[in-house]
Amino acid sequence: MRTILAAFTVVFLSLPALAQSVVDGDTLYVDAVKYRLCGIDAPKHGHPGYHQAVDYLHSLVRGKKVKCTPVGQGTPCDGRSKTSNDELVVAQCFVDGMDLAAAMVRAGYAKDWPKFSGGYYGRPK
Fold it and tell me: For a surface tag, which of 12, 25, 87, 105 has the fewest beta carbons within 10 Å of its beta carbon?
């Protein structure tokens, strides 16, 4: 039964769904699941750049379907990051094939976190 539930969870978490809200520049809710974008770090509440990072991530996902691939299933953070952190799932998330973490770094609203990305988001794309 656990195997069936685990397989269902993997498939469910990989299906595109509408983003409901943005928590900060590297965390968002998609279909009632809280995701932390793997491999990047964005300003937290109370720090300079927080509101700009939130606004930018919100502009990327507003009204669009988001597909998240949890760590351990082919992300740049596999083998470097936990699959979950507290009450959230650590994942690489996309909108129309665009990697949200890469977009946040490219726009200057987040930084690559090599400890978890292996430098993936610090490389020119």
Answer: 87
2-117 — its CATH code? Answer: 2.40.50.90
Q: If we measure between CA atoms, which residue out of 124, 121, 16 comes closest to residue 76?
A: 121
Where in the chain does DSSP place strands (E)? 17-24, 27-30, 33-37, 40-41, 65-70, 84-85, 88-95, 98-99, 111-112
Q: Determine contact, residues 45/54, Cβ cutoff 8 Å.
A: no
Q: What are the residue ranges spanned by the domains of the chain? A: 2-117
Which residues have a Cβ under 8 Å from the Cβ of 48 and sit 6 or more positions away? none
pLDDT digits (tens, 9 = 90+) for 86-96: 799 999 999 99
Q: What is the value of pTM for the model shown?
A: 0.84
Residue 1 tokens, joined: 């039964």
Asked if 63 contacts 102 with a C-beta cutoff of 8 angstroms, the reply is: no
